[in-house]
Design goal:
Residues 18-199 form the MacB-like periplasmic core domain. This protein is an alpha+beta fold and 403 residues long. The protein folds into 2 domains: 3-45 and 263-402, no CATH class; 55-254, no CATH class. 56% of the residues lie in helices and 17% in strands. It contains 15 helices and 12 strands. It has a 6-stranded mixed β-barrel with strand order 3-4-9-6-8-7. The protein has a two-stranded antiparallel sheet with strand order 2-10.
Amino acid sequence: MNIWIISIQNIKSKPLYTFLSVFILSISIALLLGIQQLKRSFENQIENNLGKIDVVVGAKGSPLQLVLASVLHLDNPTGNISYNEALKISKNPLIKFAVPISYGDNYKGFRIVGTTPEYIALYDGELEKGHPVENAMEVILGNSVARKLNLKIGDTLLSSHGLVENSIEEHDDLLIVVGILKPTQKVIDRLIVTNLESVWYVHDHGGEVNYERHDDNKRHGEKEITSLLINFKSPRGLLPFLRRINKRTNMQASLPKYELHKLYENTSIGFKTISLIAYLILVISCITIFISLYKMVKERAFDLAILRTYGASNFQLMKMVFYEGLIVAFSSFLLGFLLLKIGLGFMFHFMEYNDQQNMLQESLFQDVLQIGALILMMVIVSVSLAIYPIIKMNISTILSNEK
């Protein structure tokens, strides 16, 4: 007697119950996996992309917007600040290093960031091909940029004004690719990095280009940057520095870790709500599985009694019910995983989160395993309750009543 075949035939005989069980359970699995994936993606953006950045200094405005724009490159900048003033700030003895960044252009949706060589070191970036930026109008590509746009060393590109892809406001000056970074799984993978002179030159439309080091104040006049990324020698200098910048200057200083964790705390309410809904759906689906299996056992009591008279043991009948629950759970898990991929794909497409701004991290095997174990445990509980009539089954009574 093949228990698997009998279990499959039983499932086929009640398609409505099977469909409801699989569909409801797959919805809860998709929600649980999706929430875990979104949470990990958010946490990854915080942990990986902050790097060694303790403070961001930029124009007055929203501190969170300043952080999102300057660290994660997911928002528009709050404005520009004087490069000379930024240089003065960077000479503070409490500061270990300060990295200026300037941006406002893009190439096919990827941001072009003017900065110093230290910027790549913030993200432990290493060249895979080519050489560092040495002159104005040279750029280094993040690995995702090179891969998705199929660019290579020596290629040239025309930047467009603004942070959204457009062909209307293209600049006339060609940028040349001189290097490609190794993948880092950080924000720099989707950036085009150049020096500050390149950004200034493009926007000055032919103004004098300075090839000297950036610590020469007199050369730059009234040049501006978007923000300054700062690392401190000691945390003790953070608060006095913040108060001085925010109260005594026309700039603002923001703490990236604080702002992003505050954002995470606010969004985590939504994560918790959806998780609660997913667990409720999971409980409902397990109740549906229990009802389906229990109904099958009660309605097929005569068939089960016949199987007993032909030598089947109670354990074999229990296995048959367990296999049905296992098939439903496995099918639901596969469907739930498929729904997750389709749902997230549609969501990011609808929100215009294309490859240029893709923050999504793949689900960890640990998350999948934990949710799979939870589903299996719930199914085992449902099956254990459903097989109770088999344990109490009186063969002679059932056969005599049926006759």
